[in-house]
Amino acid sequence: MFRSLRSGPLRAALACCALLWGLGRPAVAQTSVYTPYNFTTVAGMPPVVSQSGVQYFPGSTNGTGSAALFDRPDTVAVDSSGNIYVADTVNQMIREIAPGGVVTTVAGRAATPGSANGVGTAATFDGPTGIAVDSSGNLYIADDGNDVIRKITPSVSGGVTTWTVTTLAGAAGVAGAVDNTGVLAKFNQPFGVAVDQNGNVYVADSANDTIRKVTPAGVVTTVAGTAGVPGSANGTGGAAQFDKPYGLAVDSAGNIYVADTSNSLIRKISPAGLVSTLAGGAASGYGDGTGTAAQFSFPHDVAVDPAGNVYVADTNNGEIRRITPAAVVTTLAGGGSLGADGAGYNAGFSNPSGVALDTAGTVYVADTGDDTIRSGVAVIAPTFTLKASPAACTVASGRSAVFNAIATGSPAPTYQWTLNSSTAIPGATVTNDPILVITGATSADNGTITCTASSTAGSVASSVASSASLSVVAAANPGYLTNLSGRGLVGSGPANALYGGFGISGTGTKQLLIRGMGPSIGPGLYFYIADALQDTQLTLYNSLQAVLAQNSPWGGTPALMTADSLTGAYPPLATTSLDSMLYLPVATGSSSASVGGVGGATGDAVVELYDADSPPLSAKLTNVAVRAPVGTGNDILFGGFVIGGTTDETVLIRAIGPRLGLAPFSLSPVLAQPVLTLFLGGTPTGYANTGWGGDPALVNAMNTVGAYALSASSQDSLLLVTLPPGTYSAEVSGLNGTTGIAAVEVYEVY
To answer: Which of 320, 319, 316 has its CA nearest to residue 363?
Structure first.
């Protein structure tokens, strides 16, 4: 009987084949139709191939990525949160890989076969080969050597998950072919499991040549095949035949797909029990095609997506294949050197035995012979939408200009920027960075900026170009950062006030009008914010958090009324309103204004900052910021700013959440994943970001403006854009409706 390759001699033989062929399937004439997927290693240490042989790295160590080790993992399953579960067969363990690549042990102990039920490592297995996960996070295990089906139930307490192992059906060490309930039922080397939306578990009962069903109550019945009667006949129920079926999957309609391993076929069982051949020929081999024109070689596992496409771990061919609902078979990956990551035929596998899908369509593979877990995403022939920001840009001489290339496709493209179609821009030739920053612009930079984006994935290549214009001019009143407005939810206590921060550079002082509004944004003449803060207190601080001035309420004094009118502040405040206002000169450096509720009042509020000076400016605003708790709906964070002058201005915009939880801020709770969206007036600009990704151009911009550093892996969000004069709003919300404290910051970038 064909079994999963587990022994040292078999591993050595496989290594020899890898050196001779550089791949996992025989070097014979084949028909390949690649629908390429790009595969990378999620966890485990890939083998190293050299002239002296192949060095493998089996083991049972937990860790992250390649620091974790596996030993002949047979199958994988993925839950709705992206956690990967692995039947680590030779280790006699069930492992979990978190989305960050951290590997832990769910249950079982390395090199300790057994059949004990229990919690975590107190439980034991004997060659667990199949694994499935249901919508509640319960795991089901085909415990092949024990001839039983196990269930592992999670329990969370205090943020810690414990896993309890029980036996769902079968009697440990007692092989047979009996339909019954619980321990009275018998299996014979069950290899694969799948679970449907009702919690029914389907079993590839390999040595019995049958497909079985286990209800949540442990009632076992035979769906198709007859025990001890191998074959390849189609038919209904017991009239159908299988030969050592190893893996199976079930779709939402109740169709079961079977890797009929020794027949080298992929079979389909309808909800009525009718068995048909989906794909595969009369003999094992390798070839893409339709239905029986395609060939497989001892496929071990299958998975099915919502569209009805079936994914196959074509084990002896060392390939990952896909079958459409019309039975068209193509190859996703495989054929490269042993354990190699890459797209299409550049990826290499060694006897891949397990395949699974997540909700996004990512394919996960138990690369059994390589002792690794791999993931693959579809290679999309890159179709680009390129956008320079803006399409026509006019900046003052000596200032910066930024162009953003927005491209879709996988793998990510490279970018080449040129001036006037021929001159390569220094530092912008064949780069992975979609952001072009021109600093200290001169008339020599005038002309057409062209970006060409290119990508090659497997045998698929694509490139496209997009252009924008740049004009560098002498300007008496170049673009500058002026008024600030921020709207947010004011909670109780100082940490939950609405904060507007700003920086002033230059000489002398800056005359500012600062307003803290609550009542005037409530239901009335101008706005309709139902939960507006009813009584405000406005406080101005210096960089040392010393109070410079305070107001509550503004009182309608003639001096403030005049300042309100001269700056064009909107809306004009009623003299009896409980809004707050300050009009005063502020020294260069960093300052902040907070809007809180009098007597602990809470609600939506607005903080506004108006530049009361006229150009030319001896002192100017160089950065502005707003901080507040972010809620949902109308309670998200709004940061408004105005660009004045006659030319475009380059700004760095940051939506900060996670960084506020660290020193020196140490706030809690912070917004875990801010979503930053930029508007001009009420119209989307097309600029948005979620997770800045450590882009080098953004790092340089932060260093230039003196902004506090961010981790490249943080989920804070950033934009670097050149914008024409106008009124803008940077909106910060939480990904998927999450809430917490956040800040929006705008920096002038020279």
So the answer is: 320
Task: Specify the pairing of strand 102-108 against strand 63-64.
Answer: antiparallel
CA separation (Å) from 235 to 178, 227, 239, 273? 21, 15, 5, 8
pLDDT digits (tens, 9 = 90+) for 440-494: 999 999 999 888 877 765 555 667 777 889 999 999 999 999 988 988 889 988 8
String of DSSP letters for 184-245: GS--SSEEEEEE-TTS-EEEEEGGGTEEEEE-TT-BEEEEE--TT------EEGGG---SSE
Query: How far is the C-alpha of 391 from the C-alpha of 709, rounded, in Å?
Result: 30
Count other C-beta atoms under 10 Å from residue 392's C-beta. Answer: 11
Rounded CA gap, 399 and 648, in Å?
9
Task: Record the pTM.
Answer: 0.60
Reference 154, options 130, 117, 120, 203; nearest CA is 120
Apex 190 CA angle, 185 and 195, nearest 5: 85
**Could you give the CA distance from residue 729 to residue 750 in angstroms, rounded to a whole number?**
21
Could you give the C-alpha distances from 721 to 179, 202, 404, 624, 706, in angstroms and in order? 67, 55, 8, 16, 17
Residue 748 token pair: 């002038």
> What 8-state DSSP symbol labels residue 523?
B
Strands (E), 631-712: 637-644, 649-656, 674-680, 683-689
**pLDDT tens digits for range 111-168:** 999 999 999 999 999 999 999 999 999 999 999 999 999 999 999 998 899 999 999 9
Write the DSSP string, 250-275: E-TTS-EEEEEGGGTEEEEE-TT-EE
Relative to beta strand 480-490, strand 637-644 is antiparallel
End-to-end C-alpha distance for the chain, whole angstroms: 72
Tokens standing for residue 182: 């619980």
User: Six-digit token pair at 13?
Assistant: 């033989």
Rounded CA-CA distance 520/526 in Å is 8
Could you tell me how many helices (H) and strands (E) the chain has, helices first? Answer: 3, 52
Residue environment code for 284-307, b if the CB has 16+ CB neighbours within 10 A, otherwise e: bbbbbbeeeebbbbbbbbbbbbee
Burial of residue 320, with CB atoms counted within 10 A of its CB: 0-12 exposed, 13-18 middle, 19 or more buried = buried
Q: Is 329 exposed, middle or buried (0-12, 13-18, 19+ CB in 10 A)?
A: buried
Note whether 86 and 76 are within 8 A (CB).
yes
Provide the Cα torsion 695, 696, 700, 706; round to 10°.
Answer: 40
